[in-house]
Specification:
Layout (H helix, E strand, L loop, with lengths): L1 H6 L15 H8 L1 H38 L20 H28 L11 H31 L2 H15 L2
Helix pairs in contact: 3-4, 3-5, 4-5
Amino acid sequence: MQYVKKSMPMHFFVRYKKDNKTVREIFIETHKNLVEKGGEWLNNSSNSCSVVAALITTVTFTTSATFTTSATIPSGIEAESGRPTMEKQPTFTVFSISSLIALCFSVTAIVMFLAILTSRHQEKDSGRDFSRKLLCGLSSLFISIAAILVSFCAGHFFVLKDELKYAAFPIYAVTCFR
């Protein structure tokens, strides 16, 4: 047995440190408090972000449901076809697409944050799994916020008169790039 052990490279064997523990066991034991605190922070952050994502989902779903089921579409609908009268205008297209993007990405953010909230927060997951879910959730949330901002700006063009449309551009620019 000793001959085999001596002929093999050292990295093939488990190395034990003090108290007959491996390096991984010592690391897990000494960083247990850090994992607990990180899990609490991750839960608090995920909880707050999921509330924001749920609000965005509610607003965008309500907007899309209003457009598909109700007659409250800006400038009304055509009586014969039931289609929006402003359907062929670029602002309506921007409004519809950005609202859909906001809805899809906010739902994605909710799913990612719920995956974080329902996990067991073990040390083996804290390295890559949580960071990937948090990055995906925060990125989706940021994209949905940007998309809903674009959607609201495009929606204002339905309400504003032609003279005020160009006065709104500086306000939108300041709001977006601030």
